[in-house]
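For this section, I looked closely at a protein sequence along with its fold in token form, which I now present.
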Amino acid sequence: MKSYSADLHDSTTTFEGICRDHKTRMCNNAYSAMASSMSTTFSFFNILHGITNNFPNYDKAVFGRMLKGPYSEDLLAGGGHYGFYSQVPNFRSHTDHDDYSSNSGSVTKVVIREWNTIDAMQFIYENRQAALAGNANGGQRHDIDVGGRLLNGLHMGFSSGVLASVQILYYDGTSSSKYGNRSGWSLSEISAQGSVGYKIISWSYKTDYGPSNTYGPSVVQLEYEPQEQPQP
């Protein structure tokens, strides 16, 4: 369990924001786990025929858009270093930009610029090109063609307040190369994966400055919807 402390003279509201973001992450992840359990249970209809009359109909769309996160160094065990008599912390724990649009279509490409940290990330959709989150000129650019595969999540490593490494996880169990962290820093890591039967459709993020004046994503939240959309 991550713990925090601050000078006794600090405002009593110092930790309200990050506690609220911890609660948001826990609720989002619990909601996602419930949807995954429901989806797995009702998938037995595909192999056990003749029993559907004894069970209610199940439509994954009842859960709507689902979220995983937010994730940041300050929200992970071992991330951040704060103590008595240190400067009042300015936590990086909530997103301030939502990339979602109902008209985007599926994710077709992910653009990553990286070196020691993730300088920038960008989702390219069927119907639009979203904004680049971070430094458009930082690091080396990689254009990752999703190729029709469904995105299941991201394996992320945070350091010095920003996203330092990232790996794309696909629903079929495969993954992309790992990007960033070329200096081999010690990272606070997390594998954020979606519920059974769901796919990534977008993300939310916040950008901040890191070491050596680098600039890139510092907080990440993933957004999901059912793989098969209900018919009108």
Observations:
- DSSP finds one helix and twelve strands in the chain.
